[in-house]
Structure formats: C-alpha cells, structure tokens
Write a structure and sequence with these properties.
Sel1_AlgK; 196 residues; two-stranded antiparallel ribbon; mainly alpha; Sel1 repeat family protein; TPR-like_helical_dom_sf
Length: 196
C-alpha cells in the first residue's frame, strides 16, 4: 500500500493509476489519442508510450499528463521524476487538472523538482478548482494537508500565484532546439550513447 504520509491520502498505486487514466481518458477522441489510451488501459505501456510521445510533443495536454505519469511510475519508460515533472508541467500549464495535482505532489515531495511547498500549493489550489466532482474531494484534502506545512505568508503567496495563473494555449514542443524551460527533455527521451 502506498501512502502519502500523515498529511495526505492513502491508497494503492494501482488505484491511482486507474484514477489518472480515467481522469485523462474522457477527452480522448477517435484516432491516435484513443489508440494510445486503449494501449495504456490494456497494460501495453511501451506501445502506449510510443504513441503518446509524439502527441505530447505536439502539445496534447492529456497525452503530456499521462506520459508524465508513466515516467513517474516507470511504466513503459524508465522511471524518471525529472521527465515526469517536465511533462506534468506542460500539461498543467494548459489547465489539465490531473497534471496540476500530480505536479503539486512532486513539488511537495521534491521528486524531480526542488521541494517547494508554495509551488505545490499553487498547483493543488488550481487542481482542486478545476477538478471534476469525483476528484475534487481528494484534491482538496491534499491541498489542505499541504497548507498545514506552510506559514501564513507562504499560503498568501501560493494563493496569489494561483490567482494570477491562466492556462497556456497548446503548443508543440520541437526537439531541435527545445524551448526553455525544457532544455533537458530531448536528452532524457533520446539519450545518445557515450563515446567511452
């Protein structure tokens, strides 16, 4: 059983994976996106990652979120918290609530990013506000748990950051050159063998 400590939720990784897939899947329409989600749902993670990667680079927020989850858990791709955070960030910037929630968790724990309760709270505030009815209670409880770790000044900054945030339009991510803030992503996804 995986726990998110005394400040959070309890549940199995499998349940979280199903919840993420279900939260991300409804917007999948016919075509390559639906195919990628079907592959993921069947447990064919490597094939799903292969289908999701070009969609994610094309700016599909749901593909970015699910690919981030796959990197976080090491499903079909090597486990890599930095890549997970990068993909969650792309999706979260576009307003994908599940990615905002999962990015908030990474900031809370310092996995793949520097631990930062203010940024964690910002993303959790946004996720709770944008979540579906069934997700809202879970997201709100974790948002409130993280708030207990913060000073009033930190909470105020996080709330201000959330108020100032607005979703970014989808944008394709090119491999050459990769725009900031993702200069490391091509190396993570396509490492070149060393000459040694």
């Amino acid at each position: 059983m995986t726990r998110i400590g005394r400040h959070g939720l309890q549940g199995t990784c499998g349940a979280l994976a199903i919840a993420v897939a279900l939260a991300i899947a409804p917007a999948a329409e016919a075509g390559p996106t639906a195919n990628a989600y079907a592959l993921y749902a069947r447990g064919d993670f490597q094939a799903a990652a292969a289908r999701l990667t070009p969609l994610a680079f094309a700016g599909d927020a749901r593909a970015q979120g699910l690919l981030g989850f796959m990197y976080e858990k090491g499903r079909g791709v090597p486990q890599n918290f930095v890549a997970a955070a990068a993909w969650y960030s792309c999706a979260a910037d576009q307003g994908e609530a599940t990615a905002q929630y999962l990015l908030g968790l990474l900031y809370d724990k310092g996995h793949g990013v520097q631990k930062d309760v203010v940024l964690s709270q910002k993303w959790l505030i946004l996720a709770a506000a944008r979540a579906s009815r069934q997700e809202r209670d879970v997201y709100t409880r974790l948002r409130d748990a993280v708030a207990t770790k913060m000073s009033p000044a930190q909470r105020a900054v996080a709330q201000q950051l959330a108020l100032e945030w607005s979703p970014a339009p989808p944008r394709a991510i090119s491999m050459e050159p990769v725009p900031t803030p993702l200069p490391f992503l091509p190396r993570l996804l396509n490492p070149t063998p060393s000459a040694d």
